[in-house]
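Good morning,

Attaching, inline, the backbone tokens for the sequence recovery test we're adding to the shared suite. The designed sequence is right after.
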């Protein structure tokens, strides 16, 4: 039993590492259709296949260790399942953290309308500066002008009130209620 668990964990772990490397290096993408629903297992997310491989690899490895230390097989199985689920949750959270700034290149300045952010480079009363705002879940740097024609210092909380060409017109956060 311990030999079987060893081989299962090694094979599942090896395939998992191979899929991660293909995802990171080559952008290898797997999309699996199950019936009329689509299960997305792309290189960006953990996905169904990678999730199952993580669960099987970690769970079988923990079960192997517990059985080797003369634990009750039922307890070893329970702890193996729990550890596989925990490993899956940790890996999934890690991928979310790594990919939260993944850029969606299909966006327009209109998507920034009413977005909140901070001044990155000071905006003079009659000049331009740069603001950081979150657009479609991604932090963006936008060229900006003050819509009130007042100076906005670095780290001032702002809201985009309009867009014109390549510029976002922003107001200081406390001035928004005056619209």
């Amino acid at each position: 039993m311990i030999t079987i668990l060893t081989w299962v964990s090694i094979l599942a772990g090896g395939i998992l590492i191979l899929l991660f490397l293909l995802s990171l290096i080559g952008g290898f993408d797997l999309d699996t259709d199950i019936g009329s629903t689509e299960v997305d297992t792309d290189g960006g997310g953990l996905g169904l296949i990678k999730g199952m491989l993580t669960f099987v690899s970690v769970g079988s490895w923990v079960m192997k260790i517990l059985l080797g230390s003369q634990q009750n097989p039922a307890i070893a199985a329970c702890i193996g399942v729990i550890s596989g689920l925990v490993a899956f949750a940790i890996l999934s959270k890690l991928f979310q953290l790594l990919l939260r700034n993944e850029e969606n290149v299909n966006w327009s300045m209109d998507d920034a309308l009413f977005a909140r952010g901070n001044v990155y480079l000071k905006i003079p009363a009659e000049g331009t500066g740069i603001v950081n705002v979150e657009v479609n879940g991604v932090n963006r740097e936008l060229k900006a002008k003050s819509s009130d024609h007042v100076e906005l210092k670095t780290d001032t909380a702002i809201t985009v009130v309009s867009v014109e060409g390549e510029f976002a017109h922003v107001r200081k956060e406390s001035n928004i209620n005056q619209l």
